[in-house]
Fold this protein.
Amino acid sequence: MKYIRDLDYALKVIDECLYGTLSMVDSDGFPYGIPISLVRVGEYIYFHGSRKGKKIELLKSKPMASLSCVGKTMVIEEEFTTIYQSAIIAGVIEFVLSSKEKLMALRELSLKYTPSVMDRFEAEAIKGLEYTEVFKMKIMKISGKGKID
């Protein structure tokens, strides 16, 4: 088994992971983490969510966050070890304001998660824009590592 640590590997883990955990700090200094569906477009991570809730309030007051992505994992019991892929990103999160950029982000998310029903994308996206917030996180720091066989 060998360990891998490099930028290209971290980007691959991000691109292939099915979800990540977004971590922020609340007003009392406590950590707050939530799972998100994400897609990377260049040096940004895009995700979406409701326009109300704790995440919104935290991001308005403190836009710095960390995102943890876990790729493929497999426990090797007889060797008391785990094969894994992971990446950690730190950056500033912005609310996406442009309708054009929101639709681009939602399209990229849909291509990643629901590629077989893209013929319905436009209608669903337009219908959902009124109650969906779209965010982007600029990748400022990134690390990734994995243990492979």
User: Anything to note?
Assistant: The two ends are 4 Å apart (CA to CA).
